[in-house]
Structure formats: C-alpha cells, structure tokens
Design a protein that fits this description.
Elements (H helix, E strand, L loop, with lengths): L1 H11 L8 H16 L21 H13 L3 H26 L5 H13 L1 H5 L7 H21 L2 H17 L6 H12 L4 H23 L10 H12 L4 H10 L2 H23 L1 H14 L1 H16 L20 H4 L1 H34 L5 H22 L4 H4 L3 H35 L1
Length: about 450
C-alpha cells in the first residue's frame, strides 16, 4: 500500500519549480561533482567553482548517481522521484519490523497502515530534498542495530554504524547520534559494550572522513560553510516570530512586508554579529531573551517541540508542501482530501501518545534494569526521536524536518495505545474474575 500510494503520487503530482531553494543547491552540488569533480554549491555554469561544505554530501551524491546513469533531464528526474517513492515505502516496512520487536503483529500492522498513508511521508517523495533518504537510512540503521543487539553481532553493528554515518552525511544534525546511542546502550546493557564500541566507531567514520576533507578546504566565506548555516539556524530558531515574518515577507501585503523585513534584518544583524564576534553575538542574543524570559522559556520548552511535530510546513508553500504543487491528490481527490483531514486531526494526538510512551518507558526503566531486546529496541527509537527533537528545538523547529521520523513517532504512539489496551483488558479480566468469585460465594 505504501509503495502504491507513493508511486501514484509522484507520477501525477507536478512541482512547477523543482529546483528552487534547497533543492536547487543539492542539484548544483550534484552537477559540480559530475562536471568538475568538486563538491560545491556554486550554480551550474559558474565561471569559478569553489569547493565548500555548506550542504551535506550524501543526497547530492544520490542525485549525481541518477544523473550520471541517465543524463540530466526529465528521465533522471522522474527516476529519482520513483526511487524516492520506493525508499519511502521501504521505510514503512522497516519501521514495522522495528516496532514488531515489542508490539504484537496486529498492533504493528495497525501502525504500519497509518505510516503507509501519512500525507507528509507521501508528499515528501516528490521533492528533491533530503527527508526521504535520511528517513530511510535512519530506520535501516536502527533496524540493523536492533539485530546487532539481538545476535550480539559485530558485523551488524558495523553495518548499523556505517548506515547511521551515511544518515549523518545526509543530515548533519545526526552526526553525534550513533556515538550517543552506543553510550546509552552500553550503560543499560554492559554485556553489549563491545558491540556498542563497534557502533560508535563505525558511525563516526564517514562524518570524520568528511570533516577531514573540510579541514583542507581553502579559506572560504563562512557564510558558505556548514558552521555558518548552523549559526544562522540557531539565530533564526531563537526568534519566535521568524516563521511568521518569513511567510509575511513572501505572501503579505506591502505594509506587512515592510514590518516583516525589519524583523528579518534584525535577525540577520544578530547572525552577522555572531559570526564577527561570537562572544558579543551571544551577549546580544541573551540580552534580547532576558527582556522576556518567560516568553522564551515557553518558546523553547513547549512551543518549539509542538511546532516541530506539528502539521503546517512553515518555510514553504504551507500545509504538507515545501514547494508549490499542481494536481496533488490531496488537493483534487475527495478520498485523499478526507484522508489528509483525518491525519490532520490525529496529528496532535500522535505527539501526546508518543510523549506518554516515553514517560512510561522511562518509568519502567527506572523501576528495574530491563535489558531485554524489546526494551533495548524501544529505547533506541526513543533516543533517536528525543535527540532530533532536542537538536531542532535548539536550532530551528520546522515540521518538514520531522518528516523522516514520522514513522517512528507513529510506532511510539501505537505502543501507548497497545499498553492502554492491555491494561484495560487486564482490568476487565479482574472485574470478570471478581464477579465470578462473588457468584460462586
């Protein structure tokens, strides 16, 4: 079902400007790799191609493989989208295999059904963005890690680490995750320390190689570096008004655009200050936050996590679309529109049910040292979701960034539902036994 929905979606939905924004930069990196042997986000055809590390390398390499095999144009573009549809469907199957470690087949199938039809996970396959690939690699890495724990297999731990390392080269915020996961599991299950060591080393290998490459880059503008991009996200994410200001600057009235542009200029001023003098830049940001401490405390602790796992994509077209689309089934077919409406209504509940799963798992782990495979499996999934939530809430929280992890969020939500169902059944059984005992007396 997941494959059929995604395959149909990418074949009928048109993205009029598929190479705008981030997608254009990924394509530029792929183009420069093929034509100059240089990883650079310089525009294709630029007279000077300067190597940089502004974008992460794995997704441009993914694009470059299809362009190299099929040539630039509609064929390679269409094949890339169909390949992403396949990867998206595989991610659903892999996520079901992961949650099958602790859920019954019925609950895992129910979770998989929602994963298959979730609109964000379907729509993202039609854009030349990293979400599909990073989601696939994260799910595969976790599955391999679960199997490594099950069999105490160093080979599977190595494969898991390399897969998570590739995920980190697709999305840089994931770079420390493999090491942190290894530390967490080694602490909970000392018998797996050797396996955890392999995971940590393997997950660090590819990002370390990429980092060594970046050390030898010629001195380039910091604005064109990954450090500059991270600092920019840090400043933008510290302004509660950033998303609304960005959208108003693009879609608002002329008067509203002037006010929004002033806010964006103030953000850029803090960003430039942070680049030129980090200490002074941090001081400026802290002074701004100290003027409204409760507002910013609420922003970071509550509003940003809720925004990250929300529905409406802020930086982009809105709804579930980073870019404008034509003929999307979610816009023109009644059944698909109804599906999107149902999922939209369910979205807040998924967040609260996932949070409840985290709290219940934490309570169980504190109550007793459980190192069984189901326990380690769900801990690994919770660790991933908690890690990405923390990082994006420090930087910039945008629902598009949560798309690779929606399947695992659904798995945790259904875990809470399964636990509640089991407790209700146990309660009903207790009542039935008490009634039977009373009738016997």
């Amino acid at each position: 079902m997941a494959l059929a929905l995604r395959w149909y979606y990418v074949t009928v939905t048109i993205v009029p400007q598929p190479l705008s924004g981030d997608a254009g930069q990924y394509y530029a990196c792929a183009w420069n790799l093929l034509h100059h042997g240089i990883f650079s986000s310089s525009k294709p055809g630029s007279p000077l191609v300067v190597p940089d590390n502004y974008r992460d390398p794995a997704y441009p390499l993914f694009l470059a493989l299809w362009i190299k095999a099929l040539g630039p144009g509609r064929i390679s573009y269409g094949t890339t989208l169909l390949c992403q549809a396949l990867l998206g469907a595989e991610t659903v199957g892999i996520s079901m295999q992961i949650c099958r470690r602790w859920l019954s087949i019925r609950w895992a199938a129910a979770a998989g059904l929602l994963m298959a039809v979730w609109p964000h996970s379907i729509a993202t396959n039609d854009f030349l963005l990293t979400e599909t690939l990073s989601g696939f690699l994260c799910a595969l890495g976790i599955l391999l890690w679960v199997k490594a724990c099950q069999h105490k297999s160093l080979g599977k731990a190595l494969a898991s680490g390399l897969t998570l390392g590739m995920a980190a080269l697709t999305n840089a915020v994931l770079q420390p995750f493999g090491i942190l996961l290894a530390i967490l599991i080694a602490w909970r299950a000392p018998a797996l320390r050797k396996t955890c060591l392999i995971l940590a080393l393997a997950s660090a290998a590819l990002p370390l190689a990429w980092g060594l490459r970046n050390v030898h880059l010629p001195n380039t503008d910091i604005h064109a570096s990954s450090k500059g991009r991270a600092l920019q996200n840090l400043i933008q994410g510290s302004w509660p008004t950033y998303h609304s200001a960005w959208r108003t600057s693009k879609l608002g009235s002329e008067a509203a655009k002037i006010e929004a542009t002033a806010d964006l200029n103030a953000m850029n001023g803090e960003y430039e200050q942070l680049l030129s003098s980090p200490l002074k830049g941090i001081k400026v940001v802290m002074q701004r936050m100290q003027q409204h401490p409760v507002t910013y405390l609420t922003w970071y602790l509550f509003k940003k996590p809720y925004q990250l796992w929300g529905w409406e994509i802020e930086i982009g077209q809105g709804d579930i679309y980073p870019y404008a689309v034509i003929n999307s089934p979610f816009q023109v077919h009644v059944a698909w529109i109804a599906l999107a409406a149902i999922c939209h209504a369910l979205n807040p509940w998924l967040l609260w049910l996932s949070l409840a799963c985290l709290l219940m798992t934490w309570r169980e782990q504190c109550a007793r040292a459980n190192t069984s495979l189901p326990s380690l499996s769900i801990i690994s999934v919770i660790a991933l979701l908690a890690f990405v939530t923390l990082i994006y809430c420090i930087l910039q929280a945008e629902p598009r960034y949560a798309t690779p992890f929606r399947n695992l969020e659904i798995a945790l939500a259904f875990t809470t539902l399964a636990n509640l169902s089991a407790r209700w059944s146990a309660y009903q059984g207790t009542l039935h036994r008490q009634k039977a005992l009373h009738e016997t007396h």
